[in-house]
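Hi all, a correction to my earlier message: I attached the wrong file for Trypsin-like peptidase domain-containing protein. Here's the right sequence:
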Amino acid sequence: MSTENEGTAAPTPPAAPSVPPAPAASTPDLTKAPAAPAAAPADQGYAPAEPEAPAAPAQAQAPAPAQGAEQTQQLPPAPAAPPAAAPAYGYDQTQAHAQSPAQPPAPAAHTAYGAEAWPPPPPAVPAYGGQGGHGGGAWGAPLTTDGTPPPKPKGKGGMVAAVLVAALLAGGVGGGVGYWAAERNSGGGFGSTTITAGNTPKDLKRDAGSVAGLAANALPSVVTIEASAGDGEGGTGTGFVYDQEGHILTNNHVVASAANGGKLSATFSDGKKYEAEVMGRAQGYDVAVIKLKNPPAGLKPLPLGDSDKVAVGDPTIAIGAPFGLSNTVTTGIVSAKNRPVASGDGSGGKNSYMSALQTDASINPGNSGGPLIDGRGAVIGINSAIQSAGGGGGFGGGGQAGSIGLGFAIPINQAKNVAESLIKTGKPVYPVISVSVDLQAKADGAKISEQGAPANELVDPNGPAGKAGLKPGDIITEFGGKQVDSGPTLISLIWTYKPGDTVKLTYLRGGKPTTVDITLGSRVGDK
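and the right structure:
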């Protein structure tokens, strides 16, 4: 890093999650993803290969799938005789903790449809679930002639097919019950089998504070961004209306490919598309502002909340275009605050740093730049990165994976400060302490580099840290009252402040802690 906030080596230490370089078209993740399947579009991110489905039962050979069809969940062909009872919805026989009581075998064949005796006997009370309950089979399972459920199929290769069949059979049993009840009520005559539902309100109104109400209010102010470089390469991301002048707030990595002569457009939820241009980018913050070239009248900016007042457990709503699926809404909670995150921008050596809001709302490639909204409908963050399982890449690594419930958003208080600077000057302004941090140091804190450059470059004697008495080799352990466990954590915390702010800093020298007040300096633009 430079003598400001950055380190002497690019690798990020284990203490803070990081991701490999990311293409601008998608969102950076914190780990490296497995190879993506060939079917996934290159400009919308990749999903990890799905696990191999269990083999179909030996008794039934699955028909050959059509070209391009998913082969891991084939449906078995319909048997000549009526099918055996389907297992409970989602129930897996091979994983049951206890075997159901032995069932009598099903008859070889049923009476032909239409030739059975009428009225049929009333069905036994069904059990709810795969086992236990009232002691019967799955809810909706057909009964044999002696009133007992037929044997259940073995294995789990036909689980998807069983669910579909169970749904159909449940409708058949319901019809039988309805007929039997009508016949009994009519004294032996043939009565109507129609069951009338309650009256549905003509106008179904949803509370403005519900998820549906908040989403309906926010969607018209969210755009799907398409960015492409001069060679045509690019991808899809998300942004939201920042003001009535047509400024759109998003991530830097969403629009970076179009920053130098590329094409940029924004499509609203009503399908209307507008050409746009980049007003300013902040690579370090991963924030960018674009502007619609011919903005429509009546733009409605999303209200901005106060990310400093967010609490763990607060509800969240994420809106974006995951894998290019525009106007997608997901929900969750704030699962952590002040999570230090370093994510690659795809340039091969530069990282973005944030002290992020963590959420379990489903966020995927394409959600980048979209709003994270609180329970009042106010924006509390910009969705930017995800952590993927198994070393998988996220929003722009060598391969892309989907959400596992660990999404990260730039706090809106920080993003707002950056946006104002980009709109006014086109350049970001970073708070700095003017030291070089050793990112490879094995220390419980952020260690100031001791080599790689002259001492006056490792700690600028006229900079904020130098004036406060810090020297090469000192280990910074606290900043602004928050613990520092690594170089990226320190940078993430510094960038939550503004130039000119005075912050308390604690460092170790020879094992002895010292706390000083430090006034932050500034750096204009990215390096």
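Sorry for the mix-up. The radius of gyration is 30 Å.
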